[in-house]
Hints:
Layout: E1 4-6, E2 12-13, E3 49-51
Antiparallel strand pairs: 1-2, 1-3
Amino acid sequence: MDIYICGPCGYEYDPIVGDPEHGIEPGTPFDKLPDDWVCPVCGVSKDMFEKKE
């Protein structure tokens, strides 16, 4: 599973970890995140994330 990075703040979404503080279980791939999920650090939407090379 790929890691995605928030363009504005650099937060890395790691699907192995998920985002449990915001209801996202570990093992959730980025493309399965809810449409209304936002960066837990700066609050931007998913379209501001890019796949980590």
